[in-house]
Design a protein that fits this description.
Residues 433-443 have a biased composition (Basic and acidic residues). Belongs to the NADH dehydrogenase family. Pfam families: NDH2_C, Pyr_redox_2. 40% of the residues are buried. The protein has twelve helices and 25 strands. Among the domains are: 12-42 and 84-116 and 270-343, FAD/NAD(P)-binding domain (3-Layer(bba) Sandwich); 122-267, FAD/NAD(P)-binding domain (3-Layer(bba) Sandwich), CATH 3.50.50.100; 427-451. It is globular. α1 (21-30) packs parallel to α9 (325-343) and α5 (134-151) runs antiparallel to α6 (157-164). The protein has helices at residues 21-30, 52-56, 69-73, 122-127, 134-151, 157-164, 173-193, 219-231, 325-343, 379-392, 396-412, 427-457; strands at 12-17, 35-41, 45-47, 66-68, 79-83, 86-90, 95-98, 101-104, 107-110, 114-116, 129-130, 165-169, 203-208, 235-238, 242-246, 249-252, 257-259, 262-265, 269-271, 288-290, 302-304, 309-311, 358-363, 366-371, 374-377. The strands form eight sheets. A five-stranded parallel beta sheet has the order 5-2-1-9-21. Strands 11-18-12-13-14 form a five-stranded parallel beta sheet. Strands 6-7-8 form a three-stranded antiparallel beta sheet. With 458 residues, the protein is an alpha/beta fold.
Amino acid sequence: MSFNIEREKGKKRVVIVGGGFGGLKLADKLSKSNFQVILIDKNNYHQFPPLIYQVASAGIEPSSISFPFRKIFGKKSHVNYRMAEARLIFPEKNILQTSIGKVEYDYLILAAGTTSNFFGNQNIEKEAIPMKTLQEAMGLRNALLGNFERSVTCATEQERRELLNIVIVGGGATGVEIAGALAEMKRYVLPKDYPDMNENLLQIYLIEAGSRLLSGMAPVSSQKSAEFLREMGINVWLDKKVLDYRDHKVILEDGTQIPTRTFIWVSGVRANAIGNMPSSSIGRGGRIKVNQYNKVDGFDNIFCIGDQCIMNGDKDYPYGHPQLAQVAIQQGSLLAENLIRLQKGKAMKPFHYRNLGSMATVGRNKAVAEFSSLKTQGWIAWFLWLVVHLRSILGVRNKINVLLNWMWSYMTYDHSLRLILYPRKAQEVIEREKREAETHWGEDEMQQNATDEKSQSK
């Protein structure tokens, strides 16, 4: 396997790792420039993370919030896409090692985002269900619906209790939104789909180690979101730290144990790592240190944007910018402009984050929203949340699908999609691909070592 992308004469090559909000904005703005752009992502689609929780709660289908990169750019675009995983950087040679081979670059932009942070607890990492990607959301949906089915046929009350207790760890926007979605499922869906189930047995716990939910928003928004959730029947526990998960029990620091087989972990993130990045360039949460131009510390032609980076020198955000879509989009947009300015011999512009506000939905007619001069809760915030997120989804078809699903759900008090699907590759195919990747990786390393030895001998 290889890239099979020849260098275009007279054009500098920009390699972008990650097709999230920041990487996609950067690639789009460079698509009509005098650069050769290569976009690398381990998936062949862009996903819309703010609505992943609705996939997990069987509200919408994965295809409604994802869009293939090859369809985004098309044959007329100057952006070349390759499905690959970035592994190592060889900065002295301007080479990026990926799962399908090496690629040379003039400018390398890291925009690979984050993954779930389990804070070193290997047992929780092994047992908990994260919710950062579409694959993980589908896994959670299958687990939820599968547990509901098993709960009506299980043999013991203890097992039924474990199947019908849902524990969510993390009181950020994702935790609040999935808790609200599950509360509405309990109220409107279970009585219809499972008439022989006592829906009161379904207990949903939202556990936060801090003193309030939505810590990135104002206290009034935190208080109102907690009130909304408690009104919906959610057990909101604050100042509670989860230590472990054993024998189908979530174990808290104060000794409390909650029996459950649905243990959802949305308590923090850490930046995706890449090999050969010096430790001096890594900051808090594994984020890569960058200056005000998003240039990685210690490198002249390597940049990092979005959730994967932490910017030094911004007095308004001494601990780094919030890991939000708007930060990534704004950084991607400015970096595209700065690369074009560099090409023309002009000075780059420093990044200054423009906070457009934040919001979180709790349920039907319930949300919190904050803008520069407005803080609102309830129906108005919920309507604003709908408009903002609907506008941000890629593709007209996807916008229509999501809108129709929302309208159907609002009018009928029902989600129309509740399928349990277990897509799997045959085990032998997985093992063969793994062997091929390891063999290819070894050959690349041997070739690189041989090249280095020849250079040293000369």
